[in-house]
Structures are given as C-alpha cells and as structure tokens.
Amino acid sequence: MSHGRFAGRGTGVNAIRKVGLVGWGAIGRVVGTALTEHRVPGAELVCVVDNRPLGEAAPAPQLSFDEALERCDLIVEAAGQGVVREWGERVLAAGTDLLIASTGALTDEALAERLLAAGPGRVYFTGGAVGGLDLLQAVRALGPLDEVRLTTTKLPATLEQPWMDAELLARMRTATGPVEVLSGTARDVPVKFPKSTNVAASVALAVGDLDTVRVQVVADPGAHHTRHVVEASGAHGAYRFEVAHLPDPDNPATSQVVPYAVLRSLAALAGRTGQIL
Fold first, then answer.
1. Are 113 and 196 found together in one domain?
2. Which residues constitute the catalytic centre (predicted)?
C-alpha cells in the first residue's frame, strides 16, 4: 500500500496527520471530540472504528478496520489489548503508524518484539496515567536498574476479575482499609488485570525488562484517587514518582487523565512545537 500523503515530510512541507480512532469508549470519546474540535493542530479525525454501531454518536464516519487503513496514516488504539494483538502488526505492515494506549498487550514479549520489528509503519506508546517514563528510559543508557517497584492502588470494585476466588472477593468487598490483591512481575500482573494495569507494562517498557519490575496491586475502599507509585534504584541513582488521579466517571478502571495523555502524544506526532520529548 502506498502512502503518498507524506511525500513532503522532512522537506519543510506541513502535512496533516489523518487519524483513525479505534474505540469509542471513555478514552476514545475524549480523544475523538478534541480532534473534531481541532484542538490538536496538524491532526484530523478521519474515521472511527468500533465493533458496535455508533450511529450519530460518532463525529466521523464509522468504518471497518480495512477501510481505516486505506484512508489513514495514523491509527490510535483506544479499545483494549485485544486490538493490539489482532491488528497491531497488520497496521504497521500497511505502512500506517500506530499509537498504542493499551500497553498491557506488550507483556506478551513475542508480540512486543514483532511490533517493534514491523514496518514500514512506526509504533508509538503513550505514557498513560504515570509520569517519569521518559527519565527511566534515559537512565537505561547508564546501565540496568537493580530494583524497580510499582504499587497501584484502586477502588476494590474496579479490580474484580473472573479468576478471583470467593475468599479474595469477600476480602475485597468487606475491606475497611488497603488489601493486597496480587503481587508479581510486570510480565504476570497486567495479564490478570487487562483493563487496570497498563501502567505496569508501560514502566517495564521504559525500563526495558518485564521481570525487573515488581508490581503490587492494592484494593482500597478509601481510594477516591487511583494511585501509582514507581520506585527505581541502581548504581547511578534513585528515582521515585507518585501520581494520584481521579478515576474516569464513565470507566473507573481507567484514570481521567489517560485520554489527555493520548492527546499529548498525538500532538507530538503531529509536530506541535513546545512539546517536552
């Protein structure tokens, strides 16, 4: 497939990124609305892809994935890890760039390697609900980190999963304070919480090692804010980042800030000046 839309890139000619948005949920609605209102200079919403009929709810034509690949040069994934697994390589092989919000899919190391090797399209990842990833990625150049810990605390109801046994569910539902739900590595934990622990995979992506990142998931009935604490240390320094976000009112499993992180990434890909890279 030829993508002549960007024939002028790199020559000083400004081109509009033609964006296809996959997913019209809590993240997609915010991103799509902002694009429709031209709040991301250099980016235009061309279509929306969703497995539900959206009718008048979508501000752009609802197309199939194949049609989106024909019309767009950038696909924004805002629909979950399954989309990344099913479509990621195909998007990149078509010569279309891909911005991934559901970084939890990258805990499948084989998939991650295939996406990073695929092309000619380019794959990008948004930082989502946590900060400091740019610094951790820079620190890798100094050598490996000895220890990386992520503690994620959310409301119990947002963490309930089909694999949980009756005892754990009862502890979570009757808790009057913090309860550890699961601990493990960034390789293991995001698989158990496909809608709630993309942050773990994002930290591992920045660090460059799924097994180095130890993850603790905590349920707390008093967690009116979703909290992520990243602690990392090595021979060259020590780092600590803590964030507390309001959950999205439509989807409490994700933080309210996530679609705005996607929009920031979009702005950078569209060439907005003044971005912190």
1. no
2. 228
